[in-house]
Amino acid sequence: MVNVLDTRQLDRAGIIAVTALETDEGIVLFDTGPESTFRNVAAELTRIGAHPEDVRHVFLSHIHFDHAGAAWCFAELGAAIYVHPDGARHLLDPAKIVDSAARIFGDEMERLWGRIAPVSERNVIVLEDLDVVCVPPFEFRALATTGHANHHHVYHWDDTIFAGDIAGVRLGGGPPIPPFVPPELHIESWRESLERIRALNAAKLYLPHFGLVEGSVSAHLDAVEERVCRWSIWFRNRIREGENEAQLMPAFAEYEACDLSAGGATEEDVADYEAADPSYMAVTAAMRYWRKYHPEEVTP
Length: 300
Prior knowledge:
This protein has about 300 residues and is an alpha/beta fold. Helices cover about 40% and strands about 20% of the residues.
C-alpha cells in the first residue's frame, strides 16, 4: 500500500510529501523531507501503523534538502539510502552543498532545513541508470532524469512512478509547474527526461510536491513540458531585452502568479507554490542556463 506522508514543513500542510510503501521487508520511503520535519514524518509513520525504525530502504530522487535532508536520520536507524552517483558524494560529505545553500537561504537555513549531517558510507548505495533493486514483492527501477538536477532519479515499479521534481510541482487546485532552480537547470535535458517518463506508460504518478497526481498522467506531463518551454522562452526574451536579475524577480513572480491563477490556483495555493518553489530561484536558474548554453540567444 502506498501512503503519502505530509511533512508539514513550517507547519504548512500540502507542501512537501514523503511517499511510503509497505513491503515484506518493512517500509520503503521515497525521499525523506528535510531534517526539520523528521518528527512530523515519524508521527505520520505512526499514523499508518509504523515507526521510523521500520524504514529499511530510502530511495532519494535527488539530494536537495527538501527531499533528502533527513536521510542521515533514517540511515542512523539502519536504513539503506539509494542515490544517484552524482549525489552520493554530497550525502557522504554535505559541506559543499551546505555552503552553496547558505548563500541562497542565509539565516533561514536551520529554520527551513534543520540539521544537515553526513550519511555513513555503509548505508549509501549508488544506483546507476536502469539499475533494479528488489524489495519483495516489488522491483524498483531507477531512471536518470536530469534537467532539474544532474543527480536526479525517478523510480518505477509496476504501474507506478515516484517522479521527484522533474515531473513538476502541483499543489491544491493549481496546475503542474516545473521547479526551475540553480545551478543545473537544463531545458533540453528536462524535455528528454519527461519523454523517458512518458514511455513508461504508468497509471500512477507520485510527486514530492504534492502526492498522487489525479487524472491523466500523460496530460500532467504535457502540462509540465508546456511550461518548461514557455517559461524558458519568457526568460530568454526578457534577458535579450537587457533586463537584469533585480528587474526579472518581481516580473517573473507576477507572471508565475498569473499563470497559476489562470490554471485554477487560489490565492492560498499561489502562496503555497511560492513556499514550495520560490519564484526568485527560477530567475537565477534561467539566467545561468541561457548565458551558459545559448549565449547567442540572449545577446541584446
